[in-house]
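Sequence in, structure out. Go.
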Amino acid sequence: MDWSGRRVVILGIARQGIALARYLVAHGAQVTLSDLKPAHQLDLQPLAGLPVQFVLGGHPLELLDACDLLCLSGGVPTDLPIVNEARRRGIQLSNDAQIFLEACPARVIGITGSAGKTTTTTLVGEILKTDQSDRAVWVGGNIGNPLISDLARIQPTDYVVMELSSFQLELMTRSPHIACITNITPNHLDRHGTMEAYIAAKRRILDFQLPSDWRVLSADNSVTAALGGSGANTLWFSLRGRLAGDGAWLDEAGYLRVRFARAPLAALQAEEGATICHRRDVLLRGEHNIANILAAAAICAAAGASPDAMREVATTFRGVPHRLQLVADHNGVRWYDDSIATAPERLIAALKCFDQPVILLCGGRDKHLPWEEAARMMLARCKAIILFGEMGPLVAEHLAQQRDPAGSVRWVVVPDLRTAISEAHNRAQPGDVILLSPGGTSYDAFKDFAERGERFRAWVNEMITGTTS
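Output:
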């Protein structure tokens, strides 16, 4: 697209908005950036020297008077008055992910899901890097670096692995060549309003695929298993044994297998599939991570990767930061950072990974999600529960409504994460696990889950060593 002279307004001055602004300016667009925060609450240094306009402290409708395109960063709601007015005026809406897909010369693998998308995206990137030494592999999107920052360096023969959120997808009218939905469970209902709207946003990753494209779906998740045809070819993954068609599965003996009849590799064409590894050889904890590896294997089979590359990564990969990451082992007590767990479903998955007594740190900002199942699991699996942040009292109410099977679980509500760490430390005994798996977003106290996880690590180490970070 020729951006010369086009007038673009970007809402949201964070990672995605900054990357998009730099790209558009480099291609001749006239860019205005707007944010609800005032200047002193924003880091504008990455934009220093760029010929851009700023409108801060609000999104006045006058921004649309000289606007050809309105771009929304990921955290910006699509029902803001300025967005509704743009629709009324017929002004096109877009975002950095859409613009990247329109311009990217390479094959793109897109991954979304309510849980597991970050781990799956990282696994796919590692497998392709192991297998495809003769071409570059670019990993980013909703995690790490906004890929539009790398667009000038991406070659047609490269691979791009892109994590996509429901926030990005709800605006998009392009789909990746290989698209995966790891699962769909209740999430982000504070943003989307209804489960139907949330499913529709996730499904958009498939809606614009071509007949030559591939989609990878969970056969175990009731929502993804029921998704209708998108015109693309389908690969499935499952923890429940052999699949009727191609894909990846966990067999009855505990082996991870993959089959893809169209692959040029004979090992992937056998009826029983190629063996990746046994589940006991996987370093990642939890059944959900076996599912993530199977999803990655199915994706990489469609991309032409070998079982050897899948095996090497599956048996050596230790996880992504802030996802069940061991941050300290002191006096027989293990501290785990699962800050990325921003929904009750993820909290449940984390608790299933431990047989030891668990002291759970749960809190943050609620996303209007159901807590009944998580509350039951917390009472069944935890030795103690420390609730913190905005949603602490809400989760306490759900716990009080459940019957404690053993009658021995105690919970307490504290104001913040640092106090929760201190409370957990005082309760811990050798053999215990202290698990930060919040079940809510970080936005009541931190800019994102990564900052929350880093502060958790720093405060835990400070408590253990007695030194201030």
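Check: Residues 11 and 70 are 8 Å apart (CA to CA). The chain has 15 helices and 20 strands.
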